[in-house]
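Limitations

Structures in this collection are predictions, not experimental determinations, and the ligand pose is part of the prediction. Treat each record accordingly. The example that follows, with zinc ion as the small molecule, is included so readers can see exactly what is and is not provided: the inputs are given verbatim, and the output is the predicted complex.
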Amino acid sequence: MTIYYCNTRKHALNLFSVLVLFLMSWSIVNGQEKIRFKTVVIDPGHGGKDSGAQGSKANEKDIVLNVALKLGEYINEHLPEVKVVYTRDKDVFIPLDRRAEIANENKADLFISIHANYISKPSVYGAETFVLGNHRTNEQLEVAKQENSVILYEEDYSVKYEGFDPNSSESYIMFQLMQFAFLDQSQNLAGIVQDQFTNRVGRKNRGVKQAGFLVLRKTSMPSILVELGFLSNKVEEKFMISEEGQTYLASALFRSVRDYKTQFELNNGIEEVKKKEKVTYRVQVASSPKKLSDNARVYSQFPNVWEYIENNKFKYTTGETSDYNEILKIQDDVRTKIADAFVVAFLGEERISLDKAQTITK
Ligand SMILES: [Zn+2]
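Predicted complex:
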């Protein structure tokens, strides 16, 4: 009798531990499923009394604010589930350490600091993206020095930044292992951004680099600092000042965030991300090196006009269906007005070939 009782208890205990183990693993799996990409902090560099780099016509602080706000708008429009937080959304001065704090307080999944470059050689141009790390060349160190020197606008900077001297090369040794945990993810995103800038916006690719940026130092999430281009180069300055240039740059950053988010969620076991991206067909009716205005003819001529950017051009489509036969009918209709209109295919918002579209939907 006693033995029987003991056995039952033992048995019950075993069952209990199995149950605990089961619940633990269940919650881990379930917890993983819930790791979604929720928040992005967008950090337009400089602001207020700190105008950043100065070109012949424009200041860095204004260009980067415009691009940042456009990027935020695209995220709000196309990824409404993602919360956008700006470190500044107007022309105000924000200390560097406060920018990192905003990202940490909001538990951001990503921190993107947006800047424009300046160098005494006007012939230098191109876009580059930095992650926090050790500079490999003096040129990289110079970019960090230039961006970090804004702390001199802060009265108590030597206390706040623990004696950091933005102009002394020795100060940069302290950056060695900082942000190491996020280096892979940060570099991954930086690579996506540079690809987008190069392949979709036609920027010169100056690559993914590392240097000691104070603004990235205390962020506890993957973080990048983007240098959109050089204000010291006339052509690039003109591009960055223009509405089209800012739209191109912001949409490239948007696509980078979107692609990073997809990868991030797939890595965390969120399979539905894949399913969301379905193949759609549209009929392309116009293509222009400049963005068409809202009262362009194409908008009154066709219903459901949708704009996308590819190879440095704004392209316009009408109709939208996942049925290939249906789009062929729409194409016939459209061709009565525009003879050379043609069908284009998309996976999500990414243009793909008709062959690929048909392979996917088979
Ligand atoms: Zn800057």
